[in-house]
Amino acid sequence: MKPLQISAETAKMLAEKLKLPIEQIMHMPQHILMQKMLDADKKTTQE
Predict the structure, then answer these.
(1) Which of 2, 10, 16, 24 could potentially form a cystine with 6 if both were Cys, beta carbons 3.0 to 4.6 Å apart?
(2) Does pLDDT of 2 surpass 90?
(3) pLDDT > 90 in the chain, percent
(4) 29 CB neighbour count, 10 Å cutoff
(5) What residue spans of 1-47 are helical by DSSP H?
(6) Residues 40, 13 contacting (CB under 8 angstroms)
(7) Distances (CA, A) of 5 to 16, 29, 45, 46, 47
(8) At what angle do helices 8-18 and 30-46 cross, to 10 degrees?
(9) What is the average per-residue pLDDT within 12-38?
(10) What is the pLDDT of residue 38?
(11) Residue 28 above 80 pLDDT?
(12) Residue 20's Cα: distance from chain center in Å?
């Protein structure tokens, strides 16, 4: 599996928002990353 095609800045921002290591973000399948982003967005809108 190849790393995601995102910039280092984007990976850093996602890692901070999702509270995950950058390495995990870069090697995560795209569909799982999208689901985690949706879950994080739901949490912030509920608060």
Answers:
(1) 10
(2) no
(3) 57
(4) 10
(5) 8-18, 22-26, 30-46
(6) no
(7) 18, 11, 28, 30, 31
(8) 50
(9) 92
(10) 93
(11) yes
(12) 8
